[in-house]
């Protein structure tokens, strides 16, 4: 995997021994720094996406992390095989991190997250398909606001997050997600939005412990059916047929 050095902002590839690393979860804006663009730091620092990368690195470095994983910078999406492998290994990538910082660019730590009218409750981060596994998988999740100020942790905000996502609070208190039925886990993603129809299926691969080659031309229905078939191969939980 590739990691971004929080001091030098240079990307390095690790093949075997991987150092401890932080990870950033975010919703994509119109302009993100890509793997190709960040390799040239002179021009990268002039890019609209630099502020987010710099903020993430500064935060991680302040808590002692020399390395951070940012999907837009660390995955070469122009390489089809690498992109496919990255999507299939993303669940483990989050699982093996030291901490995940969830950057909510539309929220503020000046508001009470338990307030139904707070921007935290309405943040688009909770509405995206890929952020579901980013919420559930890391050992620790810390929510940051638009100015990189801490709002709270997944544990401290568990009651509010449960209301927002309909995910049982027990999940955020340590209960293994594998103990929930297939249908229950699928319901957690039912109202999430994705830019591509196929991404209604792909983000859930890790949550069900399956792998499949992403095909971004097959359409949402075929991707969904393929995922169901893969789940049936590894699970005898009949609640899958409720879908």
TrEMBL record:
Q: Which InterPro entries match?
A: HET
Q: Which residues form a coiled coil?
A: none
Q: What is this protein called?
A: HET-domain-containing protein
Q: Which organism is it from?
A: Dendrothele bispora (strain CBS 962.96)
| Superkingdom, natural source | Eukaryota
Boundaries of every Heterokaryon incompatibility domain copy: 21-110
